[in-house]
Each structure stands twice: as structure tokens, then as C-alpha cells.
């Protein structure tokens, strides 16, 4: 922008000098009129822009999704409801991939006629999956000469999901139990609301239901004893992508996304119902996946946010630990954990059936079964995977 202002100012001064020479040399009335008009020309335009700066409206017109490396055209539309024409609107458009953190910027110039609409097209393309967010970072109204900018309030945002490429891994899912056989159905660590199994016994307290009273034992002890209900453990499957496990490059985030989506897609093809989860800042999001439509619907939402590395904190489960016996009230019998590396903190409580799929070359002394892959060869590394 600075170069454009200097160039425009230099051109204006050059023309002004010519008019000065003509006016002084010839002394004609026409030359003096041209000199005066050229001198006030930018000032009048600048004043008009001051009146116009808060009246322009803008919006992006974007497709909902695009494929990787697919060139698509998006449109920035500016509407001018005022009678004052906008000679030149300069917009700095930033495109940010929220998953990988990559950013690009493009400068657009357009003219908006009075009470009219103008559209400017720009091409977008990304060689990595994610969630592209387009925004007008800065906008200026330029005078007709092009060197007196007026900052204006043009604001617009657009969003496009860049879908990951998928491959077809051969997934062999081991349906092992999460705990001992006699503890398959109920948790040994937390109470619940399943009265079919007793979790513990305690003395009666005000508010307890009469149905909880253990009458036989109460008669023996000569005091009311109640039964605590057990918490049932479902033999359910969780696929969780921990984006916060460690700092990752754009290539690694792209590879982890493609691996997570591809394995989820293969499980759907095999008719396996599961829960798809991912970290979203300091929170965890869970989606039930029963059909291909459920999986397709969840993918753009999973790509909306990248990593948020939390120093001196557990990266996953910052709002609760995960185990076969619950996270935030949920229970899972089998957990498949995706991440950049094996977490340093003990995030899996209990004795969960866990398999880790990590984007690393090697892992030292893993506590759980680990499958490793690299961002360069993830399709070959995960061609056949036993989870």
C-alpha cells in the first residue's frame, strides 16, 4: 500500500508541476483553472470519502467445502448504499487455515458506484485440509488521485472447509474387554443408576428412596442400610484426535486429519458404531457416528480448530480424565487415541483398552500398544493396522 501511495503521489506532483509550468509560462486562464482543479481534486475526494467511510457493506460468497488442491473462486461483494461513489476501495484479505495455522494475504482494489454493488473474485486453493477463514483485515477508501487513504469500516468473513484426502486402510479391530471378565458390565470405581448390580452399601440418609433399602440386612443390623446402584460400562468405541498432544507442523496436522478420517471411514464401512472425538481448544467434542452421513457431517466441524498447546497442563482431558469408565459422564470400552506423540502425562485413568496412533518416527517405552506413522508415508505406514 505504501508503494502505491508513493507512486500515486509522485504522479500527482508530476502533473501538478506540468500545470504550474503551463500556467506560469503561458499565463492563460485555462492553464490556471486546470492547476487549481488539479490541486483541490484530491481534497474534495478525501472529504467525500470521510462521509462514506462508515456506509459500505461487504460479504464473502463462498462454497461450503472444497477438495485439497482444488482451485475455487470466492467472491467479495461490496455494496454502496450512498449517493457518493467510491473511486477506489482497497481491501486486505487474509486467508487463514485454522487447523494448520497457515496464513496468506491478498490485496484487492475495486470501485463501488453510488447506490450500487461491485464484486471482486479471488482464487483460493490449499494443499492441506482444514478450515479456511477469509476476513477483511484492513480496508481503505482512496481519493481519486490515490494518495490520501481513509480507513473505512468494511468487514466481512467467509469460511470454507477443505476436505481431507482419504485412503483405504485395512483396519483389524480387536474387540477385547476393557477389564476383567467379572467387571465387564459394571464399574468397580464409580456408582451409577443401574439397580441391577450393587455398587456399595451404606447407612440410610434422608432423601434416599425406599426402594434402595436392603431390608434383609437392615433387619440383621437393626438399622436401615441402602444399596448404591452401579454404573454400567458399555462396550463402546471412541476414536479421539488429541490436537494438543504436542506442537505439530502443518504437514503433520494434515496427515493426522487424513488418518483419523480414513480410519473412521473404514469403521463405518465395516458397520461399526463408534464415537468420534477431538480436542477443541481446552474442551473435548464428541459425535456419535452410526452412518456415513454422520461421519461426513462431523468432518468439517473436526477441522475447525487447530492445536492449543497448554503449558504445564495435561493436554487431553483438561476438563476430565478418560477411561473405560467415563469422561464427562461417558463410558467407553475401547479407545483409539490419535496424536502427535504419546502424551507425557497419565491421561488414561483405570485400565482402559487403549491403542495409540501417533505421528512420530518411534516411541520409547510405551505403556499402551502404539502404532506409529510419519507425515511423509502415512498411507504406507497404515496400510494394514490392528487396533
Automatic annotation (TrEMBL):
Domain DUF58 residues, every copy: 201-277
Domain of life (superkingdom): Bacteria
Keyword flag Phosphoprotein: no
InterPro entries documented for this protein: DUF58 (IPR002881)
Transmembrane regions: 5-24, 30-52
UniProt keyword terms in alphabetical order: Membrane, Transmembrane, Transmembrane helix
Protein name as it appears in the record: DUF58 domain-containing protein
Protein source organism: Dorea acetigenes
Amino acid at each position: 500500500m505504501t508503494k502505491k501511495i508513493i507512486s500515486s503521489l509522485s504522479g500527482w506532483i508530476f502533473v501538478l508541476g506540468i500545470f504550474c509550468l503551463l500556467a506560469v509560462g503561458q499565463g492563460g486562464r485555462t492553464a490556471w483553472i486546470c492547476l487549481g482543479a488539479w490541486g483541490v481534486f484530491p481534497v474534495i475526494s478525501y472529504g467525500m470519502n470521510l462521509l462514506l467511510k462508515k456506509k459500505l457493506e461487504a460479504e464473502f460468497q463462498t462454497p461450503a467445502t472444497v477438495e485439497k488442491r482444488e482451485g475455487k473462486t470466492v467472491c467479495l461483494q461490496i455494496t454502496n448504499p450512498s449517493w457518493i461513489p467510491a473511486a477506489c476501495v482497497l481491501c486486505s484479505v487474509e486467508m487463514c487455515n485454522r487447523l494448520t495455522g497457515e496464513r496468506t494475504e491478498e490485496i484487492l482494489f475495486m470501485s463501488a458506484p453510488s447506490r450500487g454493488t461491485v464484486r471482486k473474485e479471488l482464487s483460493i486453493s490449499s494443499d492441506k485440509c482444514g478450515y479456511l477463514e477469509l476476513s477483511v483485515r484492513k480496508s481503505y477508501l482512496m481519493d481519486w488521485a490515490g494518495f490520501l487513504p481513509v480507513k473505512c469500516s468494511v468487514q466481512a468473513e467467509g469460511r470454507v472447509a477443505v476436505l481431507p484426502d482419504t485412503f483405504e486402510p485395512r483396519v483389524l479391530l480387536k474387540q477385547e474387554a476393557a477389564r476383567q471378565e467379572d467387571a465387564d458390565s459394571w464399574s468397580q470405581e464409580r456408582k451409577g443408576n443401574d439397580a441391577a448390580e450393587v455398587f456399595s452399601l451404606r447407612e440410610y440418609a434422608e432423601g434416599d428412596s425406599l426402594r434402595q433399602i436392603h431390608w434383609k440386612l437392615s433387619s440383621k443390623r437393626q438399622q436401615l442400610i441402602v444399596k448404591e446402584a452401579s454404573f454400567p460400562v458399555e462396550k463402546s468405541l471412541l476414536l479421539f484426535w488429541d490436537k494438543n498432544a504436542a506442537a505439530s507442523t502443518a504437514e503433520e496436522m494434515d496427515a493426522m486429519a487424513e488418518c483419523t478420517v480414513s480410519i473412521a471411514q473404514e469403521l463405518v464401512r465395516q458397520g461399526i458404531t463408534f464415537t468420534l472425538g477431538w480436542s477443541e481448544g481446552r474442551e473435548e467434542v464428541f459425535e456419535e457416528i452410526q452412518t456415513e452421513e454422520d461421519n461426513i457431517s462431523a468432518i468439517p466441524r473436526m477441522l475447525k480448530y487447530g492445536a492449543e498447546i497448554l503449558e504445564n497442563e495435561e493436554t487431553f482431558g483438561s476438563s476430565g480424565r478418560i477411561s473405560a469408565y467415563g469422561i464427562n459422564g461417558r463410558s467407553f470400552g475401547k479407545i483409539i487415541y490419535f496424536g502427535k506423540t504419546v502424551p507425557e502425562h497419565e491421561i488414561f485413568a483405570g485400565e482402559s483398552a487403549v491403542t495409540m496412533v501417533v505421528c512420530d518416527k518411534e516411541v520409547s517405552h510405551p505403556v499402551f500398544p502404539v502404532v506409529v506413522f510419519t507425515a511423509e508415508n502415512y498411507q504406507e505406514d497404515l496400510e494394514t493396522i490392528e487396533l
